[in-house]
Amino acid sequence: MKIINTMAAALALSVSAFAAQAENTVKWGSRADIYSLDPNSVPSTANLAFLNHIYEGLVRYDKTFGLEPALAVEWELVDDAFWRFKLREGVKFHDGADLTADDVVASFKRAADPASPLKGNMPLFKDIRKIDDYTVEIDVTTPSSLFLNDITNIFVFDADWLKANNTEAPTDFGAGVEGYATGHTNGTGPFVLESRAPDSKTVLLVNPDWWDEKQHNIDRLEFIPITSAATRIAALLSGEVDVIDSAPIQDIERLKADPGVKVMTMTELRTVFVAMNRRETLPDGRPNPFNDIRVRQAVQALIDRDLINQRVMRGLARPSGSLIAPEIAGYAASLDSFDPADPARAAELLKEAGAEGLRFTYTCMNDESINEEDWCQGIANMLSRAGMQVDIDMGPRSVQSPKRSQGKTEMFNLSWANEPTLDAFSLLSQVLSTKDGAYGVSNYGGWSSPELDAIVKQAAAATDPAERLKLEEDALRVAKDQILLIPLHQQPIAWATRDRVQDLDLRADNKARHWFTTLAE
Question: Which pTM was predicted?
Answer without folding.
Answer: 0.82
